[in-house]
Specification:
Length: about 675
């Protein structure tokens, strides 16, 4: 049994036990029937209950005190009527309207000093008269109140019957401070009931735990209240924005220019930020983060490699947010305190106007053709109502809305339907469902495509490929081409094709070649273009033709001829001709003074630039050049060598139409001595 310990440190007070059955003492929700008094020499009077709550009275004039129980209490005769009424008024909401009938009385008749502890229903009142110069009330080791003076009236905590519950403490009128985290309450039965926060206390408030899910799939956001919102433009979206964490989603076009689909995610947490890309790259402030199956921790954020994507776990003051990203879908599960989400933008729809990028709020209508049957799409999306999803307790309607919103306005390619199903399965924590419906984890996550111009999609065979975005492909499709215009140089010709357009046609670039099968394309990994070229060093079996004054060089990019085997081939056949036309070189003249042994001249003839070399010799083997010291006789044979270099000898031939000698340095000289050509 709990006991009231009344320690009176006064010489003369007899120690012993007292029965309080005629005046039970209410304290902290219980009524005490036994009183033990002890004393030791001191000038200090101390009254304590369970050593936690203490009343200490200091008085240098303390002498012998007596103790008795007043069973016939007359408030007026004790001079307590008005003090009691005053306390009744001050604590009217907690003190019942009763008349006290007894009191515990410590007194010294010679000094007219009294200490009254009066049970008042379930509350105890303390009155001190003519005794102390200083009174200290303590709760445990903490001082609750200090009072100086000989007279003092106070309400000791009790447990009121009826009325509202209130925390157990020494009340300080007229205000009361109620804590909301850890309490000891008096209930209506007068018992102590200890109530503490089941989870955590913050700012004197019990924190309420909850579990929330936010999903961005296709062009729809499903918020924490299971409401679907369409993403209307290409501007970033706040998926979470509070003092703990900010999540921004960025969107781009894919096959159609007016359907914004997830492109990357930017997350900010306690001064650290990082970006998640479809290519699998995670770019943090200090460089690239490489997730592992066991988890890579950076700034208390854990990056884990999972099938088809990456899982990011962010700790938030005993809460946690887990973000799954596969390049097309973002699935965030928040487990923690509801208060952390109050007053924040959490998984809401609406673009961030302050972050508009390249007129991201301008959306143009794109042509869809006649290939989308929305009725059939709707029926397909209602698969979420059937097995294996029918046992899921989560509402499937927002996910069905997201499915219809995407597939009635886009295409069913690239595994998007499976992404939609997966977002619902993750919300339901459903496992082992993919094989049943012919789905698989995202194949595109980790596939690098050229940002802004390409996106990862699935080929007819289900392989991840880089396809051209709608706007990037538009000018090429408008001209009916697969790449850039032919580039004609003086000694070469080349053409570059877009790899993403070839992928869309189902053409494997490794199978393409020019007329010469050994001449294949060269892929630029940065621009993702494949270039085919031939030059004077290697014509790659180019065809040469003459049309008027032009020489035309033509080659063809093609796939191998069908070998008529029984193997099914999904690749389209391709044949692209490209050519360069050059104007034929005109007749050129050169002169050689007999005093020189040779002359070299660079000739620029339109598209053609070549070097002409002419030298004179006295022997047929062309070993003895003529110079200024060489003597020549009449009728002595003279041999002249003419040579053209830096020209494609397989395509151009050098023809000497005439060769003569003259005394004048003039091409049109009247006197010419024609030499024999040989």
């Amino acid at each position: 049994m709990l006991r009231l310990l009344l320690s009176v440190s006064l010489i003369g007070l007899v120690a012993g036990g007292y029965n309080l059955s005629t005046c039970p003492f209410p304290y902290y929700g219980s009524f005490y029937l036994d009183l033990t008094i002890t004393f030791k020499p001191s000038t200090e009077l101390e009254i304590s209950v369970d050593t936690n709550n203490t009343i200490t009275v200091y008085d240098s004039n303390m002498a012998d005190f007596d103790f008795k129980i007043e069973t016939s209490l007359n408030l007026t005769s004790f001079g307590l009527k008005e003090p009691v009424e005053m306390l009744e008024s001050m604590y009217s909401s907690h003190i019942p309207k009763e008349t006290p009938t007894c009191a515990l009385h410590l007194y010294n008749a010679n000094l007219s000093a009294d200490i009254y502890i009066i049970p008042y229903g379930s509350v105890a009142m303390l009155f001190i008269r003519n005794i102390g110069e200083k009174v200290t009330l303590k709760s445990g080791l903490s001082v609750v109140k200090n009072i100086t003076g000989k007279n003092f009236d106070y309400v000791l905590e009790g447990c009121p019957t009826g009325g509202p519950e209130f925390p157990m403490s020494l009340l300080d009128p007229p205000e009361e401070v109620f804590g909301t985290c850890e309490h000891k309450y008096c209930n209506i039965s007068g018992l102590v009931k200890e109530v503490m926060c089941p989870d955590d206390c913050r700012n004197n408030q019990c924190m309420e735990k909850g579990h929330f899910t936010c999903v961005l799939v296709g062009n729809t956001i499903i918020d924490t209240k299971e409401k679907a919102h369409a993403v209307e433009d290409f501007c970033p979206q706040f998926l979470m924005n509070n003092s703990l964490m900010t999540i921004l989603s960025y969107h781009s076009e894919r096959r159609l220019s007016d359907v914004p689909l997830l492109d990357k995610v930017h997350i900010f947490h306690q001064g650290y930020d990082f970006q998640l890309f479809q290519s699998g790259v995670i770019l943090g402030q200090n460089g690239t983060v490489v997730p592992t199956e066991n988890g890579t921790t950076v700034n208390n954020i854990v990056f884990t490699k999972v099938p088809g994507g990456v899982s990011v776990t962010v700790k938030l003051n005993k809460s946690a947010a887990e973000v799954f990203f596969d390049g097309t879908t973002l699935h965030m599960q928040y487990s923690g305190y509801v208060q952390d989400l109050v007053g924040s933008d959490t998984c809401t729809s609406g673009s961030v106007q302050s972050l508009q990028i390249n007129n991201c709020n301008t959306v143009l209508n794109d042509s869809r053709g006649d290939g989308i049957n929305c009725g059939a799409v709707t029926q397909r999306c209602h698969l979420l109502l059937k097995e294996p999803f029918s046992e899921c307790p989560m509402d499937p309607e927002p996910y069905i809305t997201a499915c219809i919103n995407l597939l009635c306005n886009y295409t069913g390619t690239d595994g998007l339907f499976c992404h939609l199903l997966d977002s619902y399965a993750r919300t339901c924590e459903l496992q082992d469902w993919m094989d049943t419906l012919g789905c698989s984890p995202s194949k595109c996550y980790g596939k690098h495509c050229q940002p802004g111009k390409e996106f990862c999609g699935l080929s007819i065979g289900g392989d991840p490929k880089c396809f051209c975005t709608a706007n990037y492909a538009a000018p090429y499709k408008a001209k009916g081409t697969l790449g850039d215009d032919t580039v004609c140089a003086s000694k070469s010709a080349s053409v570059s094709l877009l790899h993403c357009l070839l992928e869309e046609k189902g053409i494997n670039i490794s199978s393409l070649h020019l007329n010469d099968p050994k001449c294949t394309g060269v892929l630029d990994p940065v621009l993702n273009k494949v270039t085919f070229s031939f030059s004077d060093a290697d014509h790659c079996a180019a065809n040469v033709s003459i049309k008027g004054s032009n020489i035309i060089y033509t080659n063809t990019i093609s796939t191998p001829e069908d070998d008529n085997t029984s193997v099914i081939n999904r690749e389209d056949h391709l044949s692209i001709k490209f050519s360069c036309a050059y104007t034929q070189p005109k007749i050129q003249t050169m002169s050689l003074k007999i005093m020189d042994s040779s002359i070299v001249k660079v000739i620029d003839a339109g598209e053609w630039t070549y070097v002409f070399n002419m030298a004179a010799f006295t022997d047929e083997e062309l070993k003895s050049p003529v110079d200024s010291g060489t003597g020549l006789r009449l009728d002595q044979p003279l041999f002249v060598k003419a040579q053209v270099s830096e020209v494609d000898q397989q395509l151009l031939a050098v023809v000497i139409e005439d060769c003569w000698a003259t005394e004048e340095k003039n091409y049109n000289a009247t006197q010419k001595y024609h030499l024999k050509n040989g």
